[in-house]
Design brief:
Largest sheet: none
Distance between the termini: 48 Å
Number of domains: 3
Radius of gyration: 18 Å
Number of strands: 0
Oligomer: single chain
Shape: globular
Helix content: over 70%
Structural class: mainly alpha
């Protein structure tokens, strides 16, 4: 029988494991990650594998974006493997930590207000259109505005580099 975990339940596991990994407690992080259920992952999956699986589940209908990026990277690796390896090394040294910290912050804030974002997530997951007459109702509109403002500002700052 399959075990079902909601996105917030999965995030609770991931955030604890991720926090432990960031605190250089990889041993405890791996113990926590074993609680994450996915039929696609091995029982001893690493944090990056779990994050990829979680992101893919969260953005279901957007899976082709993952596959498209994966195809492009595979093609680049075939044509210029040394350049791809150089890029991976450069990224790992210069940007990976900063990006992971930002992603952790985004996910943490998103799941703090999951009740506010849940409807929009469902529309995105199933690629459903949003009608012109629809409007968002929110108990936490100021926090939501801050969340989106920070995300877009962060994306613009990263793009300027």
């Amino acid at each position: 029988m399959a075990k079902i975990q909601t996105h917030p339940q999965q995030w609770a596991i991931i955030s604890k494991a991720w926090s432990l990994a960031r605190s250089r407690r990889a041993d405890l992080s791996r113990v926590e990650l074993r609680k994450y259920f996915s039929e696609e992952l091995e029982a001893d999956a690493e944090l990056d594998d779990v994050l990829f699986d979680f992101g893919a589940r969260l953005l279901q209908a957007k899976g082709p974006l993952y596959m498209g990026a994966y195809s492009v990277m595979n093609e680049c690796a075939k044509r210029a493997p040394e350049r791809v390896n150089d890029f991976r090394a450069w990224y790992a040294t210069n940007l990976a930590r900063e990006h992971k910290d930002r992603y952790f912050d985004i996910f943490s804030q998103f799941f703090r207000d999951y009740g506010e974002f849940g409807q929009a997530l469902l529309l995105t997951q199933y690629n459903l259109p949003i009608g012109r007459d629809e409007s968002a109702s929110s108990q936490a509109l100021p926090r939501n505005n801050i969340f989106y403002a920070k995300r877009f500002r962060g994306a613009l700052v990263s793009a300027d580099r």
